[in-house]
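Data card: per-record layout.
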Amino acid sequence: MRHKRGNKKLGKPTDQRMAMLKNIVVALFENNRIKTTDTRAKEAKKIAEKIITLGKNGDLSSIRKALKIIPNKSVIKEVFSSFGPKYKDRNGGYTRIIKLGFRKGDNAPVSLLELVE
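The structure for this 117-residue chain is written out next.
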């Protein structure tokens, strides 16, 4: 059964939420780490892990599936050329979340989402 396997709403409509998560993932692949709130990091981690798993396959259908998730050709090209071969022997766990504390303005829990070396 798939009870309780949905995604977090993050207080945004679906289109805004997906755009925000895609931007977080693109920034993660460009900078190798990003600082964001805990719940956003956990949701972005799911997308990033799927993209890297597709990058390990490296075939044309995987590229097309990845472009459906993140329509940014330069980032997808980087994932398939560098991150795919880098994590070839790893069976998941390509990212890590490190809790940094709480944000000063609204006391939101902040985390560092980064790619594992």
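Known properties of this structure: The mean pLDDT is 95. The longest helix spans residues 38-57.

See the next section for split statistics.
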